[in-house]
Write a structure and sequence with these properties.
The complex is a heterodimer of chains A (305) and B (264). Helix content of chain A is 74%, strand content 3%. With 305 residues, chain A is mainly alpha-helical. Chain A has a two-stranded antiparallel ribbon with strand order 1-2. Classes of the chains: A mainly alpha (305), B mainly alpha (264).
Chain lengths: 305, 264
């Protein structure tokens, strides 16, 4: 930006243009090198073969005298797309993400609606209270659920004490625990976009509907809910996409019988040390999520303009 | 929707109780004298003493705070540039791609970014350690910083800067001396958000680090895997305290500068 500072006001056009270009180039270059190009690289390495040494994969190209050999190994993709464990992990991840997104909507909507119905003075405090958990470490909040849900944890101790159960329930290391953890962790991401559409909705429209004889419930379904739909969709996208690739929650709260794809990638990487295979699993996950991600981006871009 | 009904109050109560229950449990049991979660062994600060005497945890905390501070600063600077580009320059070639790259990391699963960035670092031949973690954290927190700064920059009245430029001020100087002072609260919250996101990250750090450098979440994670100990409650409470203090400070900063703006 220094070149812009130096440019004099008398001859701004040429120098300002260079300043502008530099201004655009800095964040652009950063994201190209560290965000976009790595995906292309991962796609390339997914077609490589694992080997011992560093880096632990064969180069794709090799010079043989004057001939450039290109070796593309599609075995990883064939394996990922035909192997039952991977297919099941993809399907399980999509299922868990879909169900927990729906469950979150049921908790988040009434909460957002409740906050929007409060007086503006208490609203900002309530929004602040929703945001605080999102700012505090996710790892430690998931860990806290471990001590609540364990066989000898707080929940079981409570239920045993009231006499609701006679034997501790096994919740930790089951799919139920994964759902609880996901709904809990991602809830603020669902509440905030819904709240922001609800609080900016034109209230005279609801009053008009009521004046025209609409009942409270039908005014909600015919006016309020359709108005909040953009927030609902944004919240769903904001939650669904990252949950599909979630690692920490299934790893700490789930059991061995529920494999989610984020955890499969982690294990492939750190336990099997098969980088090309891990890259292939990652690329397939990315391909699965491209449509929702592009949808999310175009939505966000539209609301910004 | 003028007055909250009993249903509204109940949903707020239930929602907030759900959000805060695990946090309260964590904090309360960090002061538990007993090692068991279900047994209350009296008030004790012994787990805090254990944490502070654990050199591995302290080492991890140092790495984490350094990485978080550097990457949050880098993300805030880059985020300011990106926000200016997206808000002030409406038309240029490649705008849609830049916007996409700024939005995608927000929803991109961490493992996907972690694997790809690691492969990039290995290909570029950069030694993996605190430096690569910092580069990776700057990249994924950049989008959050940009969103915060962009929403503030949109609200600012560009006519003040135009006036400065008309009076002969170069555009960059006009931005720094007119717009930037009005963005202080947004800069603070962008920095804090990036800082806490970096401090919290486990997945991206685990992939992009090399042998030797472990961040605090990586140490906590391996301890959790080892078995639940009250020591982790104590570490968590310390982190929570720092985050809450930072948040409250940020709120105060933004309130003060709002008052200054309205007083001026």
């Amino acid at each position: 930006m220094s070149s812009v500072v130096l440019s004099s006001a008398a001859a701004p056009s040429a120098k300002t243009n260079w300043g502008k270009r530099l201004l655009i180039a800095i964040p652009y270059a950063w994201l190209l090198v560290l965000f976009l190009a790595p995906f292309a690289l991962a796609a390339g390495i997914s077609l490589s073969t694992v080997r011992l040494g560093m880096p632990p994969f064969e180069p794709l190209t090799a010079w043989d005298g004057s001939i450039l050999n290109l070796r593309l190994n599609f075995e990883n993709f064939l394996y990922v797309l035909t192997d039952d464990t991977y297919l099941l992990a993809y399907l399980t991840s999509l299922k868990i993400a879909a169900i927990s997104t729906a469950a979150m909507l049921f908790i988040a909507y009434p909460l957002a609606y409740g906050i929007a119905s409060c007086a503006p003075s208490s609203r900002s405090l309530l929004v602040f209270l929703v945001i605080v958990p999102f700012w505090s470490s996710m790892l430690i909040r998931v860990y806290s659920w471990m001590s609540i849900l364990r066989n000898d944890g707080l929940l079981n101790a409570l239920l045993l004490k009231i006499g609701l159960i006679s034997e501790p329930l096994r919740i930790l290391n089951t799919e139920t625990a994964i759902y609880i953890g996901i709904v809990y962790t991602y809830l603020p991401f669902m509440v905030l976009p819904i709240y922001s559409t609800l609080s900016s909705a034109d209230k005279t429209l609801i009053e008009a509907a009521r004046d025209l004889g609409c009942s409270r419930i039908s005014a909600f379904w015919r006016v309020t809910f359709p108005l909040s739909l953009p927030g609902v969709l944004a919240g769903c996208a904001l939650v669904f996409i990252p949950v599909v690739g979630e690692f920490v929650i299934p790893d700490l709260l789930g059991g061995a019988d529920t494999q989610m794809i984020g955890r499969a990638i982690w294990l492939e990487f750190f336990n099997n040390r098969d980088w090309p295979m891990a890259a292939a699993v990652t690329i397939v996950l990315l391909a699965l999520l491209v449509v929702p991600i592009v949808y999310f981006q175009s939505r966000q871009a539209r609301t910004q303009n | 929707m003028t007055k909250p009904s009993w249903f509204n109050r109940l949903s707020i109560l239930f929602g907030l109780a759900f959000l805060y229950l695990p946090i309260v449990v964590l904090v309360v049991y960090s002061f538990n004298g007993s090692k068991l979660v279900t047994v209350w062994g009296g008030f004790s600060t012994q787990w805090y003493a254990t944490v502070l005497a654990n050199p591995s945890i302290i080492e991890g905390a140092k790495v984490s705070f350094l990485v978080a501070a550097v990457s949050a600063t880098a993300a805030t600077i880059l985020g300011t540039l990106a926000a200016v580009v997206m808000v002030r320059l409406r038309r240029f070639r490649g705008r849609a791609l830049l916007n996409g790259m700024l939005l995608a990391p927000m929803v991109m699963p961490e493992v996907v970014m972690a694997v790809s960035m690691l492969l990039m670092f290995v290909t570029l031949g950069i030694d993996r350690g605190p430096l690569t973690i910092t580069l990776a954290h700057t990249t994924f927190t950049l989008c959050f910083a940009t969103v915060v700064l962009q929403s503030r920059l949109v609200e600012l009245d560009p006519s003040l800067e135009e006036a400065a430029r008309d009076l002969g001020c170069p555009p960059a100087k006009a931005f720094v001396s007119v717009a930037l002072p009005n963005m202080v609260p947004a800069l603070v919250s962008a920095w804090l958000l990036s800082f806490t996101l970096s401090l919290d990250d486990l997945v991206i750090s685990s992939f992009t680090t090399g042998p030797g450098a472990s961040t605090l979440p990586m140490k906590i994670y391996s301890q959790i895997k080892f078995g639940v100990t009250p020591e982790i409650n104590a570490i968590s409470t310390i982190i929570l305290g720092i985050v809450v203090l930072g948040l409250v400070a940020a709120q105060l900063v933004s309130r003060r500068s709002e008052q200054r703006v309205s007083a001026a």
